[in-house]
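Problem: given the chain below (248 residues), write out its structure.
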Amino acid sequence: MAFLDDNINRLEPRYQPQFNAWKNNPTTATTGALLKSVQPDIDKGIFAHVGKSDPLLASKAKKMALQAIRSYDPTKAKLGTHIVNQLQGLKRVARQQSQILPIPERVVMDQGYIERAKAELADEFGRDPTAVELADRTGISVKRINYVNKFRYPMAVGSMANMSEEDDDLYQPEVQQTQSDSWLEFVYSDLDPTNQKIMEWTLGLHGNKALSNQDIARKLRMTPGAVSQRKAKIQQVLNQEELNPFAN
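Solution.
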């Protein structure tokens, strides 16, 4: 006999086996299985209340979800809805975390989240994602992604002498831009993802390192000539503001 009367309970059918098993025998195994089954609702709650996730928030969200399960009444609401509502406390957790963590640690957490999203999108698209695509996936603004990508830890005096040639790439100076940032971003926002990447890698936009035509072509799996053609078309638009960032 099922633990719950199907005539009165609002528990989603997809959760009934795991919930009933946990309710009848709340062991580590049944608890883990139930938490795993409701993970989509946990993720939904994180993004609904905070907008992005990180390891600390994800861990806290699971603990809060377990508390929500323990207080859950199947006659009053769906389990998924109850969990999402109970995760509202993540807003306070996120604020406290932001205030407590030093800036470098907050940046490292965002870097890890952005890099994971970048890898996922690269697998999906077969190319590196644009800053806009990363922002859509992570919920982190393009401005914040730009800041995180450019962030460099302060270096002790004399430490440059101990850096290897491989490390030296991490401290290349940013590409200097004298053009109007608002006009660059306006043009950038109107491009397709491939042309956005060409613009990012040409100008060093959004924390990307400026690359040669050959390197851009290799990353986008096209010929250097095709890259040059796309640059020329982008330049035509930029020239409307009397800008010339792609000029040799």
